[in-house]
Amino acid sequence: MTFYQELQLNQAGSKSYISSFESMKDKWKHSGIYLFKILLNIAFCTVFIALFSMIFGTENSCAGLAVLLSIMVFRNADLGIRVSHGTCNILMVFGMLAVGPKLTNLLPAGWAFCINVIFIMLILLLGCHNVIMFNHSTLVLAYLLLQGYDVSGESYHKRLLGLLIGAVLTAAVYYRNHRKKTYKRTFKSLFLEFDLSSARTQWQLRLTLTISSALLIASLLGIPKAMWIGIAVMSVCVPFRGDMTERIKYRAPGNMLGGLLFLAAYFLLPEGSVSYMGILGGIGTGLSASYGWQTIFNAFSSLAVAMPVFGLPYAILLRIFNNVFGTLYAWLFDRIFQPFLSRLIHCFSQ
After folding, report:
1. What span, in angstroms and rounded, lies between the C-alpha atoms of 79 and 96?
2. CA distances from 179 to 79, 166, 172, 184, 321 (A)
3. 14-36 CB burial, b ≥16 within 10 A, e <16
4. Which of 89, 227, 84, 73 is nearest to 136 (CA)?
5. How much of the chain is helix, strand and coil, in % rounded to 5?
6. pLDDT band per the 50, 70, 90 thresholds, residue 43
7. In this structure, which long-range contacts are made by residues 243-246, counting pairs with CB atoms below 8 Å and at least 24 apart in sequence?
8. Which pTM was predicted?
9. What is the pLDDT of residues 224-266, one digit of tens each?
Protein backbone atom coordinates (compact mmCIF):
# COMPACT_ATOMS: atom_id res chain seq x y z
CA MET A 1 0.00 0.00 0.00
CA THR A 2 1.37 3.40 -0.99
CA PHE A 3 1.64 6.38 1.36
CA TYR A 4 -1.23 8.11 -0.47
CA GLN A 5 -3.46 5.02 -0.29
CA GLU A 6 -2.78 4.74 3.43
CA LEU A 7 -3.89 8.33 3.90
CA GLN A 8 -7.26 7.45 2.33
CA LEU A 9 -8.10 4.80 4.95
CA ASN A 10 -10.69 5.55 7.64
CA GLN A 11 -9.99 5.08 11.35
CA ALA A 12 -10.97 1.42 11.45
CA GLY A 13 -9.06 0.69 8.23
CA SER A 14 -5.90 2.39 9.50
CA LYS A 15 -5.98 0.57 12.82
CA SER A 16 -6.59 -2.76 11.11
CA TYR A 17 -3.69 -2.09 8.72
CA ILE A 18 -1.36 -1.17 11.59
CA SER A 19 -2.27 -4.32 13.53
CA SER A 20 -1.46 -6.46 10.47
CA PHE A 21 2.27 -5.81 10.98
CA GLU A 22 4.27 -7.98 13.37
CA SER A 23 7.36 -5.79 13.59
CA MET A 24 7.16 -3.00 16.18
CA LYS A 25 9.20 -0.83 13.83
CA ASP A 26 6.53 -1.16 11.13
CA LYS A 27 3.75 -0.58 13.67
CA TRP A 28 5.38 2.65 14.84
CA LYS A 29 6.01 3.76 11.26
CA HIS A 30 2.41 3.31 10.15
CA SER A 31 1.08 4.68 13.45
CA GLY A 32 3.05 7.83 12.61
CA ILE A 33 1.40 7.98 9.18
CA TYR A 34 -1.99 7.54 10.87
CA LEU A 35 -1.32 10.43 13.27
CA PHE A 36 -0.02 12.57 10.40
CA LYS A 37 -3.26 11.90 8.49
CA ILE A 38 -5.34 13.02 11.47
CA LEU A 39 -3.32 16.21 11.95
CA LEU A 40 -3.51 16.88 8.20
CA ASN A 41 -7.30 16.51 8.26
CA ILE A 42 -7.62 18.72 11.33
CA ALA A 43 -5.42 21.38 9.74
CA PHE A 44 -7.33 21.29 6.45
CA CYS A 45 -10.72 21.45 8.17
CA THR A 46 -9.61 24.30 10.44
CA VAL A 47 -8.26 26.35 7.52
CA PHE A 48 -11.33 25.66 5.38
CA ILE A 49 -13.79 26.69 8.11
CA ALA A 50 -11.67 29.73 8.98
CA LEU A 51 -11.62 30.92 5.35
CA PHE A 52 -15.34 30.24 4.90
CA SER A 53 -16.12 32.18 8.09
CA MET A 54 -13.84 35.02 7.00
CA ILE A 55 -15.69 35.34 3.70
CA PHE A 56 -19.28 34.64 4.75
CA GLY A 57 -19.21 35.56 8.45
CA THR A 58 -18.52 33.59 11.62
CA GLU A 59 -22.26 33.07 12.12
CA ASN A 60 -22.18 30.96 8.94
CA SER A 61 -19.40 28.62 10.06
CA CYS A 62 -21.98 25.82 10.30
CA ALA A 63 -22.68 26.28 6.58
CA GLY A 64 -18.94 26.00 5.99
CA LEU A 65 -18.94 22.74 7.96
CA ALA A 66 -21.85 21.45 5.85
CA VAL A 67 -19.95 22.25 2.64
CA LEU A 68 -16.70 20.76 3.96
CA LEU A 69 -18.34 17.50 5.05
CA SER A 70 -20.19 17.20 1.73
CA ILE A 71 -17.02 17.64 -0.31
CA MET A 72 -15.10 15.13 1.81
CA VAL A 73 -17.91 12.56 1.75
CA PHE A 74 -18.88 12.77 -1.93
CA ARG A 75 -15.25 12.59 -2.92
CA ASN A 76 -15.60 8.86 -2.21
CA ALA A 77 -19.33 8.14 -1.85
CA ASP A 78 -21.65 7.88 -4.83
CA LEU A 79 -25.44 8.04 -4.95
CA GLY A 80 -25.94 4.75 -6.77
CA ILE A 81 -27.44 6.38 -9.88
CA ARG A 82 -26.11 7.77 -13.17
CA VAL A 83 -23.42 10.28 -12.38
CA SER A 84 -25.04 13.14 -14.31
CA HIS A 85 -28.28 12.56 -12.41
CA GLY A 86 -26.42 12.29 -9.11
CA THR A 87 -24.68 15.59 -9.79
CA CYS A 88 -28.05 17.27 -10.27
CA ASN A 89 -29.31 15.61 -7.08
CA ILE A 90 -26.50 17.20 -5.09
CA LEU A 91 -27.44 20.63 -6.41
CA MET A 92 -31.10 20.02 -5.49
CA VAL A 93 -30.18 18.82 -1.98
CA PHE A 94 -28.14 21.98 -1.40
CA GLY A 95 -31.14 23.99 -2.57
CA MET A 96 -33.22 22.28 0.11
CA LEU A 97 -30.53 22.95 2.70
CA ALA A 98 -30.71 26.64 1.80
CA VAL A 99 -34.51 26.88 2.09
CA GLY A 100 -35.87 24.16 4.41
CA PRO A 101 -34.11 25.02 7.70
CA LYS A 102 -34.93 28.71 7.26
CA LEU A 103 -38.64 28.00 6.71
CA THR A 104 -38.86 25.90 9.88
CA ASN A 105 -37.56 28.85 11.90
CA LEU A 106 -40.10 31.25 10.39
CA LEU A 107 -43.24 29.10 10.74
CA PRO A 108 -45.25 27.87 13.75
CA ALA A 109 -44.36 24.45 15.20
CA GLY A 110 -47.06 22.55 13.30
CA TRP A 111 -46.08 23.94 9.93
CA ALA A 112 -42.39 23.50 10.77
CA PHE A 113 -43.13 19.81 11.39
CA CYS A 114 -44.66 19.51 7.90
CA ILE A 115 -41.67 21.26 6.33
CA ASN A 116 -39.28 18.94 8.16
CA VAL A 117 -41.16 15.86 6.96
CA ILE A 118 -41.15 17.01 3.34
CA PHE A 119 -37.55 18.24 3.17
CA ILE A 120 -35.89 15.48 5.21
CA MET A 121 -37.76 12.84 3.22
CA LEU A 122 -36.68 14.41 -0.08
CA ILE A 123 -33.07 14.65 1.11
CA LEU A 124 -33.13 10.94 2.01
CA LEU A 125 -34.71 10.00 -1.32
CA LEU A 126 -32.31 12.06 -3.44
CA GLY A 127 -29.09 11.66 -1.46
CA CYS A 128 -29.35 8.48 0.60
CA HIS A 129 -30.63 5.79 -1.77
CA ASN A 130 -27.35 3.91 -1.45
CA VAL A 131 -27.72 3.30 2.30
CA ILE A 132 -24.33 1.60 2.64
CA MET A 133 -22.68 4.99 2.11
CA PHE A 134 -24.40 6.47 5.21
CA ASN A 135 -24.85 9.78 3.35
CA HIS A 136 -27.62 10.77 5.78
CA SER A 137 -24.99 11.35 8.46
CA THR A 138 -23.74 14.25 6.32
CA LEU A 139 -26.84 15.60 4.58
CA VAL A 140 -29.36 15.36 7.42
CA LEU A 141 -26.70 16.57 9.85
CA ALA A 142 -26.17 19.62 7.61
CA TYR A 143 -29.92 20.27 7.57
CA LEU A 144 -30.12 20.14 11.37
CA LEU A 145 -27.03 22.32 11.87
CA LEU A 146 -28.37 25.00 9.54
CA GLN A 147 -31.69 24.84 11.35
CA GLY A 148 -30.09 25.08 14.77
CA TYR A 149 -27.81 27.98 13.84
CA ASP A 150 -30.32 30.17 12.02
CA VAL A 151 -29.40 33.59 10.65
CA SER A 152 -31.33 36.41 9.02
CA GLY A 153 -30.87 39.53 6.93
CA GLU A 154 -27.47 40.05 5.35
CA SER A 155 -26.07 36.98 7.12
CA TYR A 156 -28.69 34.80 5.45
CA HIS A 157 -27.86 36.27 2.06
CA LYS A 158 -24.21 35.38 2.68
CA ARG A 159 -25.27 31.89 3.75
CA LEU A 160 -27.16 31.43 0.49
CA LEU A 161 -24.10 32.49 -1.49
CA GLY A 162 -21.83 30.20 0.54
CA LEU A 163 -24.16 27.23 0.04
CA LEU A 164 -24.41 27.98 -3.69
CA ILE A 165 -20.62 27.95 -4.05
CA GLY A 166 -20.48 24.84 -1.85
CA ALA A 167 -23.07 23.11 -4.03
CA VAL A 168 -21.06 23.80 -7.18
CA LEU A 169 -17.81 22.62 -5.56
CA THR A 170 -19.40 19.43 -4.17
CA ALA A 171 -21.11 18.64 -7.48
CA ALA A 172 -17.85 19.21 -9.37
CA VAL A 173 -15.90 16.93 -7.03
CA TYR A 174 -18.64 14.31 -7.22
CA TYR A 175 -18.71 14.35 -11.02
CA ARG A 176 -14.94 14.29 -11.38
CA ASN A 177 -14.45 11.36 -9.01
CA HIS A 178 -17.37 9.20 -10.15
CA ARG A 179 -17.77 10.03 -13.84
CA LYS A 180 -16.35 6.68 -14.97
CA LYS A 181 -18.86 4.63 -12.98
CA THR A 182 -21.80 3.10 -14.84
CA TYR A 183 -25.28 2.77 -13.37
CA LYS A 184 -28.59 1.89 -15.00
CA ARG A 185 -30.56 3.49 -12.17
CA THR A 186 -31.75 7.05 -12.93
CA PHE A 187 -33.31 9.93 -11.01
CA LYS A 188 -36.75 8.50 -11.76
CA SER A 189 -35.72 5.14 -10.30
CA LEU A 190 -35.34 6.69 -6.84
CA PHE A 191 -39.09 7.32 -6.74
CA LEU A 192 -40.12 4.16 -8.59
CA GLU A 193 -38.22 2.10 -6.01
CA PHE A 194 -40.06 3.75 -3.12
CA ASP A 195 -41.85 0.72 -1.64
CA LEU A 196 -43.28 0.30 1.86
CA SER A 197 -42.19 -3.34 1.89
CA SER A 198 -38.57 -2.28 1.25
CA ALA A 199 -36.24 -2.05 4.27
CA ARG A 200 -34.70 1.09 2.77
CA THR A 201 -38.05 2.87 2.40
CA GLN A 202 -39.10 1.85 5.90
CA TRP A 203 -35.87 3.29 7.30
CA GLN A 204 -36.31 6.53 5.32
CA LEU A 205 -39.84 6.94 6.68
CA ARG A 206 -38.81 6.02 10.21
CA LEU A 207 -35.89 8.45 10.26
CA THR A 208 -37.96 11.28 8.75
CA LEU A 209 -40.88 10.90 11.12
CA THR A 210 -38.74 10.29 14.20
CA ILE A 211 -36.63 13.42 13.69
CA SER A 212 -39.59 15.60 12.68
CA SER A 213 -41.80 14.53 15.59
CA ALA A 214 -38.94 14.81 18.10
CA LEU A 215 -38.25 18.37 16.93
CA LEU A 216 -41.97 19.16 17.15
CA ILE A 217 -42.13 17.95 20.77
CA ALA A 218 -38.97 19.87 21.65
CA SER A 219 -40.43 23.03 20.09
CA LEU A 220 -43.74 22.69 21.93
CA LEU A 221 -41.93 22.10 25.23
CA GLY A 222 -39.49 24.95 24.60
CA ILE A 223 -36.39 22.76 24.98
CA PRO A 224 -33.24 24.73 24.01
CA LYS A 225 -30.79 23.30 21.47
CA ALA A 226 -33.47 21.03 19.94
CA MET A 227 -30.94 20.46 17.15
CA TRP A 228 -29.03 18.16 19.52
CA ILE A 229 -32.15 16.00 19.91
CA GLY A 230 -32.51 15.73 16.13
CA ILE A 231 -28.83 14.83 15.72
CA ALA A 232 -29.09 12.18 18.45
CA VAL A 233 -32.08 10.64 16.66
CA MET A 234 -30.27 10.74 13.31
CA SER A 235 -27.18 9.16 14.83
CA VAL A 236 -28.93 6.12 16.33
CA CYS A 237 -31.68 5.65 13.72
CA VAL A 238 -29.47 3.97 11.11
CA PRO A 239 -30.48 1.70 8.19
CA PHE A 240 -29.35 -1.54 9.82
CA ARG A 241 -31.25 -2.50 12.97
CA GLY A 242 -28.31 -4.32 14.57
CA ASP A 243 -26.26 -1.13 14.33
CA MET A 244 -29.15 0.84 15.80
CA THR A 245 -29.16 -1.33 18.93
CA GLU A 246 -25.43 -0.79 19.43
CA ARG A 247 -25.68 2.96 18.92
CA ILE A 248 -28.57 3.32 21.37
CA LYS A 249 -26.43 1.51 23.93
CA TYR A 250 -23.54 3.98 23.63
CA ARG A 251 -25.11 7.33 22.67
CA ALA A 252 -26.34 8.56 26.06
CA PRO A 253 -23.45 7.13 28.18
CA GLY A 254 -20.96 8.51 25.66
CA ASN A 255 -22.35 12.01 26.03
CA MET A 256 -22.41 11.72 29.82
CA LEU A 257 -18.75 10.71 29.86
CA GLY A 258 -17.95 13.36 27.25
CA GLY A 259 -19.56 16.01 29.46
CA LEU A 260 -17.59 14.88 32.52
CA LEU A 261 -14.32 14.85 30.57
CA PHE A 262 -15.08 18.32 29.20
CA LEU A 263 -15.74 19.53 32.75
CA ALA A 264 -12.44 18.04 33.95
CA ALA A 265 -10.54 19.55 31.00
CA TYR A 266 -12.09 22.95 31.68
CA PHE A 267 -10.69 23.04 35.22
CA LEU A 268 -7.39 21.28 34.54
CA LEU A 269 -6.31 23.11 31.38
CA PRO A 270 -5.08 26.73 31.44
CA GLU A 271 -7.64 29.52 31.34
CA GLY A 272 -8.72 30.47 27.84
CA SER A 273 -8.19 26.99 26.42
CA VAL A 274 -11.94 26.42 25.87
CA SER A 275 -11.61 27.73 22.32
CA TYR A 276 -9.32 24.78 21.58
CA MET A 277 -11.69 22.15 22.99
CA GLY A 278 -13.29 21.71 19.58
CA ILE A 279 -9.91 20.90 18.04
CA LEU A 280 -9.19 18.52 20.91
CA GLY A 281 -12.52 16.83 20.25
CA GLY A 282 -11.69 16.60 16.54
CA ILE A 283 -8.38 14.91 17.28
CA GLY A 284 -10.07 12.50 19.68
CA THR A 285 -12.75 11.67 17.11
CA GLY A 286 -10.06 11.12 14.48
CA LEU A 287 -8.28 8.64 16.74
CA SER A 288 -11.51 6.80 17.57
CA ALA A 289 -12.59 3.81 15.49
CA SER A 290 -15.62 2.90 17.63
CA TYR A 291 -18.94 4.74 17.82
CA GLY A 292 -18.77 5.00 21.61
CA TRP A 293 -15.49 6.91 21.67
CA GLN A 294 -16.54 9.08 18.72
CA THR A 295 -19.65 10.07 20.70
CA ILE A 296 -17.52 11.04 23.69
CA PHE A 297 -15.23 13.33 21.71
CA ASN A 298 -18.02 14.79 19.56
CA ALA A 299 -19.44 16.18 22.80
CA PHE A 300 -16.32 18.34 23.18
CA SER A 301 -16.97 20.28 19.96
CA SER A 302 -20.64 20.84 20.77
CA LEU A 303 -20.00 21.93 24.34
CA ALA A 304 -17.22 24.31 23.29
CA VAL A 305 -19.78 26.18 21.16
CA ALA A 306 -22.66 26.00 23.66
CA MET A 307 -20.76 26.92 26.83
CA PRO A 308 -20.39 30.68 26.08
CA VAL A 309 -24.16 30.86 25.51
CA PHE A 310 -25.52 28.68 28.33
CA GLY A 311 -22.68 28.57 30.83
CA LEU A 312 -20.68 25.47 31.75
CA PRO A 313 -23.07 23.54 34.05
CA TYR A 314 -26.22 24.19 32.03
CA ALA A 315 -24.52 23.42 28.70
CA ILE A 316 -23.35 20.02 29.98
CA LEU A 317 -26.72 19.15 31.55
CA LEU A 318 -28.56 20.28 28.41
CA ARG A 319 -26.24 18.22 26.19
CA ILE A 320 -26.83 15.11 28.31
CA PHE A 321 -30.60 15.65 28.58
CA ASN A 322 -31.11 16.26 24.86
CA ASN A 323 -29.11 13.19 23.89
CA VAL A 324 -30.85 10.96 26.43
CA PHE A 325 -34.21 12.30 25.25
CA GLY A 326 -33.35 11.84 21.55
CA THR A 327 -31.99 8.33 22.07
CA LEU A 328 -34.91 7.09 24.16
CA TYR A 329 -37.41 8.73 21.82
CA ALA A 330 -35.83 7.05 18.78
CA TRP A 331 -35.98 3.68 20.57
CA LEU A 332 -39.62 4.16 21.60
CA PHE A 333 -40.70 5.44 18.19
CA ASP A 334 -39.09 2.43 16.53
CA ARG A 335 -40.93 0.03 18.84
CA ILE A 336 -44.27 1.63 17.95
CA PHE A 337 -43.69 2.52 14.31
CA GLN A 338 -42.35 -0.80 13.03
CA PRO A 339 -45.30 -2.98 14.15
CA PHE A 340 -47.75 -0.33 12.92
CA LEU A 341 -46.07 -0.21 9.52
CA SER A 342 -46.03 -4.02 9.30
CA ARG A 343 -49.79 -4.14 9.93
CA LEU A 344 -50.32 -1.36 7.37
CA ILE A 345 -48.34 -3.27 4.73
CA HIS A 346 -50.28 -6.44 5.58
CA CYS A 347 -53.62 -4.63 5.15
CA PHE A 348 -52.60 -3.21 1.75
CA SER A 349 -51.36 -6.61 0.57
CA GLN A 350 -54.69 -8.30 1.32
Report:
1. 17
2. 12, 19, 10, 14, 45
3. bbebbeeeeeeeeeeebeebbee
4. 73
5. 85, 0, 15
6. confident
7. 244/330, 244/334, 246/291
8. 0.89
9. 999 999 999 999 999 888 888 889 999 999 999 989 988 888 8
